Each structure stands twice: as structure tokens, then as C-alpha cells.
Amino acid sequence: MLKGAAWSIPVIAAATAVPFASASEVGVVIASGGNACKLPGSSCKDNGWTKGYLQPLTIDNPTGEAVTVTIPSTVTLALNGVDVTFTVSPSTFTIPAGDSQRVLLNIVNQGNSPTATITGSIPWSHSAGGSGSVVISTAATPPCDNCTA
Fold it and tell me: Do 107 and 79 touch, CB atoms closer than 8 A?
């Protein structure tokens, strides 16, 4: 009888640990970067971008509830090895359950915007208490197609 009671304690502990682990994962957001592109000359001036670069970022919400994500409105990334400030748009947004949000990082007025490398880390946090960062590493920046990345 005592053996049976001792065996039930770990089973109960394991059963209570599973909901706790699930609750701690609520709002987990997975972020990934995409291919950057360059904005040569005045090719995208109607969008407000000249002589610069666009770096897309997709943030996914694989959870069962809406999550509000915050990224700083500006982030520092290395452009050809030199730290520069990119503007993030949007920087705060709500992602419905099971959906994703596309974010654009842009920098303008960069001389002749040659093909470049963009590297760095972008921090983010979300309303359910999670946070993280996504690493950006773009080896080339072809011209943007129709002013989109």
C-alpha cells in the first residue's frame, strides 16, 4: 500500500508540471528574416525611400491567442560592416492566433546604395511576457522588385 502511494506522488507532480510548461509557452513568437534589397536612386521615392535598403522580417504567432509584439522603432544593424540605424515599421502590432505579421526595416539616403551585406540582431518582446531576438545576415542586396522586399 505504501509503495502505491509513493508511486502516485511523481505522477501527480508530472501532471501538474505539464500545464505549467504549456502556460509558460503561451505567446511564444518565432521570428525570421527574409532577403533584403536595395533601393537605388529615386526608384522608390513615391514610397518615401531613396538610395537605401529594405530588410523584411516576418514574425509568426503559432499560439492559440492574439499576441501584441513590440520591436524598437529603430534598430542598429551593420551595413557593410558599419553600424547604421534602420527604421522599423510597424514596431508595435497585434498578431491574431496562428497568423503572422510582416515588418519592414528601412534605411535611406545611403549614397549610391551599392550591393551590401546587412547583419545584426533585432530584439522583440510580446504581451504574454516572452522576448527574444532574430539574427539578420544578408549576403547581398539585389534591387527591390516594385519597391518591396
Answer: yes
**Residue of 146, 142, 133, 140 whose CA lies nearest to 57:** 133
CA 90, 92, 95, 100 torsion-angle sign? positive
Q: Which of 89, 125, 84, 123 is nearest to 104 (CA)?
A: 89
The pLDDT tens digits for 99-145 are 999 999 998 888 776 788 899 999 988 887 888 888 888 888 888 88
Q: What is the pTM of this model?
A: 0.74
User: Following DSSP, what letter does each residue of the chain receive, concatenated?
Assistant: -HHHHHHHHHHHHHHHHHHHHHHHTTT--EEEE---EEE-TTTBGGGTB-SEEEEEEEEE--SSS-EEEE--SEEEEEETTEEEEEEEESSEEEE-TT-EEEEEEEE---TT--S--EEEEEEEEETTS-EEEEEEEES--PBPBTTB-
Q: How far apart are CA 84 and CA 49, in angstroms?
A: 16
Q: What residues have CB less than 8 Å from 22, skipping those under 6 apart?
A: none
Q: Length of the chain in residues, anyone?
A: 149
**pLDDT reported for residue 86:** 93
